[in-house]
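Q: Trace token order:
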Amino acid sequence: MWSESAVWVSGFANYASATIVMLIFLRAALKELSGQFAHPVRPVGQVGILAFAFISQLVVEHVTLYLFVASIGALAIDYLEQRMFSRRLTCWVLGFGAGAMVMFSNPAYRELSDGQSYKKLGAQSTSPLAAAKEALRDQISTNGMVSNTAVIFAICSLSALTAVVMYASGVGSLRARLVQLVLGLFALVGAVAAASRLTNQPVESGSTKTVLASAVVLVVVLWAVTLQKDAGDRLVIIVAVLSLLALSLPLLVVTPIGARNFLPSYALLLVVVSVLLSNLASLTDARVAGLWCAVMVAIGAVAWVHLYGIYSEIDHAADKRERSVRSQVGSDSPQVSIYALPNGEWLQYPDPSNPVYARRFKVYYDVPKDVTVRLVR
């Protein structure tokens, strides 16, 4: 387990740290825009912001671009409101800008633009527009949105429950409450659909349906803005949606990308869930929000047990396959036969099904290079 997980630690640390920085900046920017800071930032604080912003830009490329653009946007909005530049936001902009310049001055990014790097701008065998469509269909709409079934269920169910509570409260015109109730019923359908997918086969490749499903989820999130009684909560959700879109833009033109690129987006969806739950708790009895949490835990437990069974079967078969491989290698066989793992759709690369993964399989299991690997299905 250690050998299979340790190699991912550095990658996860990169995306996790970038995600934390993004959340810290958004929190600070929203507080500055809403005037929640009681005192102006001191020189020591300015230096701290500059240093923190600079260092945080040297981690994940698309988050680096997002933070720089988002900080400029926050500074511009604050200037239009106050007719003066905020020192805090100016420090964020300068730190993010300097860090981005240092990061992208690395010669590796010139190789990227020349097509000589592991990562590439667009696909080499197709047009930029076709590559962007493929990224939107197969990665952004799947790993970035549709695959997050638990979060989608939380967003849809919370929105539907809030609409029902608002209808029952009698506040506002009957027509407006009926419209919200009908929209809430649609959100409830979405919640049921998401819950049914928690234990189904995962979404591996996208289609037009996954793109449309992602758009529907974003529409539900934007509709949820109208359900918030606090202006600050409405702003948080709007900023989260805009940030989701901004984080996705660079990923349209870079290959390859994978699930880990969307950890910042996932964190933003969790922020939306947190705001929706807080709003529901403020509109009704705390027992309603508590009941929703209990339902979420129950559904999560059922899904966990189901997935535990799937991965236990995979783990047992993988151990058996490894023993078989080592036995065949030990007998100096010129060919190693391995069986495909069960439930392979739940793994990223379950079997050495092509020359690239056959080579990696040999390296991982210490199989001699001259030995042929034959996959038995």
